[in-house]
Design brief:
The protein has helices at 23-31, 33-36, 59-65, 134-155, 163-177, and strands at residues 6-9, 12-20, 52-57, 83-93, 97-104, 107-118, 121-129. By secondary structure, the protein is α+β, with helices and mostly antiparallel strands. It has one domain (6-177): 2-Layer Sandwich (Alpha-D-Glucose-1,6-Bisphosphate, Chain A, domain 4), CATH 3.30.530. Strands 1-2-7-6-5-4-3 form a seven-stranded antiparallel β-sheet, with helices on one face. Helix 4 (134-155) crosses helix 5. The longest helix has 22 residues, at 134-155. It is globular and about 40 Å long.
């Protein structure tokens, strides 16, 4: 298994991680506001088809928790410190599958988290579909890789790796790996 996302087609990226279980614990980090806020974003997830998904990103708080010593990257300087997105659950099979739309302005992508037990570990397969442009694919790839690394650290009880430093480095690597520059 490779930590890097795989481009399945021009609009789809897929990641896999092997996480410490049990599966119910990992599920809670996908669906519970306080736990999800530690690695991705806060907000409520209604775990039923057609349920609302609220995503309130505040990456500065993740960066501070990781003792990141670099400032917020230049590309985010014109964006608010807190950003919110909405979505609708399109598939929900607790504790194995959560799929939802990701709506922002005129973009409407879809994320699917699939969990499978493997002994005392849990395989997470994350697939993000309907990414409209190469720039979005690049940003999403580096972003998911960064956030998933933080999830691994949080689940292992470790201090998360420096968030913005990691994100900046990974986005540069994805630009080369995915030949999107």
């Amino acid at each position: 298994m490779n930590d890097y996302g795989e481009l399945l087609d021009e609009q789809t990226v897929r990641f896999e991680r092997l996480l410490p279980g049990p599966i119910e614990r990992v599920w809670s980090y996908l669906t519970e506001n306080d736990k999800r806020a530690k690695w991705l974003c806060g907000g409520d997830v209604e775990t039923a088809v057609d349920g609302n998904v609220d995503m309130h990103f505040h990456n500065i708080s993740i960066s501070q928790a990781s003792n990141d010593d670099i400032p917020r990257p230049e590309k985010y300087k014109d964006r608010p410190l807190k950003m919110s997105f909405a979505g609708k659950v399109t598939r929900c099979e607790p504790p194995h599958v959560l799929q939802h739309t990701w709506e922002f302005e005129d973009e409407n992508s879809e994320v699917c988290y699939e969990l499978t037990e493997e002994g005392d570990r849990v395989r997470l397969v994350l697939t993000h579909r309907r990414l409209d442009t190469k720039d979005i694919v690049l940003s999403v790839s580096g972003g998911w890789h960064t956030h998933l690394n933080v999830l691994v650290d949080v689940l292992n009880g470790d201090t998360p790796r420096p968030f913005y430093k990691m994100q900046t480095q990974l986005e540069a690597e994805y630009s080369e790996r995915l030949e999107l520059n």
